[in-house]
Write a structure and sequence with these properties.
Order of helices and strands: HHH
Number of domains: 1
Structural class: mainly alpha
Distance between the termini: 26 Å
Strand content: under 5%
Shape: globular
Number of strands: 0
């Protein structure tokens, strides 16, 4: 997860993940950003559909990572 964080963080403080790395809130922030949440108060609040979309996207990224790892492997 830490590898995709720089792509999800913006330039402003409101678009940075300020949660400790060992907390569920840190991972939830990343999943929410993957789901399309921007983090601004003017935007509608984060909901289950956004989290579902983020989890799906994260699952796809993880599957791609695991496939790439198998291709690179030299057993």
């Amino acid at each position: 997860m830490q590898e995709i964080l720089p792509k999800l963080e913006g330039k402003t403080r409101k678009q940075k993940n300020l949660h400790p790395h060992d907390c569920l809130s840190w991972a939830a922030w990343i999943i929410a950003r993957l789901g399309g949440w921007k983090g601004y108060k003017s935007e509608s609040p984060l909901g289950p559909i956004t989290m579902f979309r983020g989890l799906k996207k994260f699952q796809d990224l993880l599957e791609g990572y695991n496939l790439a790892k198998k291709l690179v492997r030299t057993d």
